[in-house]
Structures are given as structure tokens and as C-alpha cells.
Amino acid sequence: MWFSFFIYSVLTALLPGPNNILALNSSMKSGYKNSKTLLFGIYSGFTAVMILAAFFTEFILNSYSFLLDYLKYLGAVYLLYLAWSVMSGKPSELHVEKEESVSKAATDFWKGFFLQFVNVKIIIYGITAFSSFIFPQFQELWIILIFALFLSLIGNSATWIWAITGERLHLFLNKHYKIINIAMGILLLYCAVSLFL
Fold this sequence. Notes:
Layout (H helix, E strand, L loop, with lengths): L1 H13 L3 H13 L5 H28 L3 H22 L10 H7 L3 H7 L4 H15 L6 H25 L1 H28 L3
Membrane topology: Multi-pass membrane protein
Protein name: Lysine transporter LysE
Subcellular location: Cell membrane
């Protein structure tokens, strides 16, 4: 189970999403140094959302425990969607279309911070991790907070990787995108199935 949790957390965090694409484009256009304010906003907002996801999920499980099965199905559907979108994705989909808004956001802490509260990818990422992997094993508040920080560390590390790698990561994905997409898609399918084992 913890192997599935690790695969789920790392792969989901590394997949293209609003944070990773924004970080990639910002560092490509403005450089890593000029993107630090935006990245700090993303990191702070991500951590806040993971803590909120922990308490929100715990409230649902304590008050409406029958929803756990539905959350597992929601998580599995989301993983299947991610697997499909990754396997069928093309390099051109990794670009952010509105380049002007990306360059404006490159030094804006608050845009990076508030993006997290509408970033469906990380909200479902947190809820799925807590409902499917963490709460079935642990109930202690301090352990839940450690997992929230751990999920934040994984997610923020993935965004940092996209930012620091910048154009080189983009070129690598363009060159080898079919193999990478298939491998990541298969691992996500494994994670979806493992929720019910």
C-alpha cells in the first residue's frame, strides 16, 4: 500500500498541471532567479491547501464515513483520467497559451498563492491521498499534519524540478514524450487499481 502511495504522490506531483507548467514557462521566460517570488507563492499556497485537505477529509470521514467509498471512486476516476490524458498527450499541450499572463505572474507571490485554491489537480491530489492511503491507517493529528507537510514537500519539489530544469525538461519531453507518457500512464493505472485491493 505504501508503495502505491509513493507512486501516486510522486507521479501525480510530477505530471503537467497548472503549477508545473507555470513554473516551467516562468523559468524559461524570466529565468529561475526572477521566478522565485512566484514559486514561493506556489509553495506556500500548496502547503496551505494540503493542510486544509487533511482537515476537510477528516471532517468528511468523521461525520460522513460512508463517503469514504465515494472518495475512493472519485480518486480512481481522477487517476484514470490522468492516465488517459498523459498517454494521449502531445508536447504542444505542455505550453501555456497565454504567455503574457505567465510573464506577468513570474514575480507575483499572490498569483502563485491563490492559484492553489482553484487548482483542482492538487485539491483532488490531497483528498485522494488522505482518504485512500492515510486515514485508513492513521487518525492522530500530528501524524496527519506530518503527511500534509510530506505531500507538500513532494508537490513543491516537483514544481521546483520543472522550474529549475526549464527548457531542458521541455526539450526532453518533446523528444521522448511517447515513451514517458505510456510509462507514467501505466503506473497511474496501477495506482487506480490498487485503491481497491
